[in-house]
Write a structure and sequence with these properties.
Elements: H1 9-30, H2 37-58, H3 65-74, H4 91-111, H5 132-147, H6 151-178
Helix pairs in contact: 1-6, 2-3, 2-4, 2-6, 4-5, 4-6
């Protein structure tokens, strides 16, 4: 795949537009101790509630919800009820949701190193293969180019909705863990 000077332009626009929401989610989930089975279970439960809501609408090529379910089963924990799925059929909105999901794989790679020994980490270890993140950025740029007026704003709204779902699930789980 040939690199173009504009590759990642839409990703950068989405990153800029969602930076505050992304930081909020990172801060919420930073309180979870991934080497503690109890805290890690709550962390995965929160992710299950958010990812369970986002994946049906985003339709990723490589869903991670089954991997999360494997980890929950290994912890003898039930899969949580997903938060309500966002209702918006706009193509840009779906790509915004997808941007947040695919971006979370990057964070998962770092977080998987914090998971305690003997704890399952299929979900967090599901990283992009060689060149997949770059390919996603090219696909995102192409979708935006074909999407027309309003596409990028729809994508921003989708990404913000995804971060809001992660934040809501994280807040809920944090109250359970930390009171």
């Amino acid at each position: 795949m040939t690199k173009s000077p504009d590759a990642g332009r839409v990703r950068q626009a989405l990153r800029d537009a969602t930076m505050a929401s992304h930081r909020r989610v990172d801060a919420l989930f930073a309180d979870f101790s991934l080497d503690s089975p109890r805290s890690y279970r709550h962390f995965l439960t929160a992710h299950g509630r958010a990812v369970g809501a986002i994946e049906p609408a985003a339709r990723p090529d490589a869903p991670r919800l089954p991997l999360l379910a494997q980890d929950m089963a290994a912890l003898d924990a039930p899969m949580p009820t997903p938060l309500p799925t966002p209702a918006n059929d706009a193509d840009g909105y779906r790509w915004g949701l997808l941007y947040a999901l695919e971006g979370s794989r990057l964070g998962g790679a770092m977080l998987s190193r914090q998971v305690g020994e003997g704890l399952p980490k299929n979900y967090l270890s599901a990283v992009h293969g060689k060149g997949e993140w770059v390919a996603f950025q090219h696909a995102l740029d192409s979708a935006a180019a074909e999407g027309g007026e309003g596409w990028l704003e729809d994508a921003v709204q989708g990404a913000l909705a995804a971060f809001a779902l992660f934040a809501a699930a994280g807040e809920e789980a944090r109250k359970t863990v930390h009171g």
